[in-house]
Design brief:
By secondary structure, the chain is mainly β. The protein has 2 domains: 127 residues, no CATH class; 58 residues, no CATH class. Helix content is 4%, strand content 35%. It has a 4-stranded antiparallel beta sheet with strand order 4-3-7-8, with no helix packed on it. It has a two-stranded antiparallel ribbon with strand order 1-6. It has a two-stranded antiparallel sheet with strand order 2-5. A hairpin with a 5-residue loop joins β14 and β15. The radius of gyration is 21 Å and the shape is elongated. The protein starts with a strand and ends with a strand. 12% of the residues are buried.
Length: 208
């Protein structure tokens, strides 16, 4: 009983009125959903917008987020319907069903990564209506595993590239198939530093 949702946090010591601002998933069209009047983010507090707001007749152009390909979100300030040029944005990658993304500080800046738990406020709801009651909460820690990269050899001493390797480790207590069980031809893959497709049927045993 979940739906798309976007949470915003106000780190300042004063409430921020975002009435009339715009929410969108497109940098080319920032004015898809105008935030209703009397909408305020409390000091050091949160606000959540749900899909039945921005993917409804309330929006000038309906939208939802792509879990298969990843997406972007833009919050743009506006005065009397005119964009001021001030905005906050975030991009995120593909997501498993039910997994949210959160802002994480790293040595290279802030990134949006999968979270270990949803923290919209009502995160194990019995109904969609109950989920919509969530008003935001502090993020959980980042989701780790069940499969992690445990070792990399990228520069063998003798320069023999055939000795390069990437080791994966399953930190879970159950086996992890490296393919979609419902569609076995859809297998996991490595990209960028390596270009590799795992064979259908490949499984990493628990702790292996």
């Amino acid at each position: 009983p979940l739906m798309d949702a976007v949470e915003f946090y106000n780190p300042s010591g004063n409430a921020v009125d975002i009435s009339g601002w715009f929410l969108s998933d497109s940098g080319a069209n920032l004015r898809k959903f105008q935030i209703p009047s009397n909408t305020t983010v409390p000091a050091k507090g949160y606000i959540v917008f749900y899909e039945d707001q921005f993917n409804s007749d309330l929006a000038s152009e309906r939208f939802s987020f792509s879990s298969a390909n990843g997406d972007e979100v833009y919050l743009s300030q506006a005065v009397n319907g005119v964009l001021t040029g001030y905005r906050a944005s975030a991009s995120f990658g593909p997501a498993e069903n039910g997994v949210s993304f959160g802002r994480l500080a790293t040595s290279q800046g802030y990134h949006f990564v999968p979270m270990a738990q949803r923290t919209f406020g009502r995160d194990n709801p019995a109904t969609t209506n109950e989920f919509r009651l969530g008003a935001g909460a502090t993020n959980s820690y980042a989701k780790v595993g069940p499969v992690v990269i445990s070792e990399i050899m990228y520069h063998p001493a003798n320069g023999n590239e055939t000795l390069e390797f990437i080791e994966l480790h399953n930190i879970a207590t159950t086996n992890v198939p490296l393919y979609d069980v419902a569609n076995p031809a859809n297998t996991w893959r490595l990209r960028k530093g390596a270009d590799f497709e795992f064979a259908t049927g490949t499984t990493i045993p628990a702790g292996g």
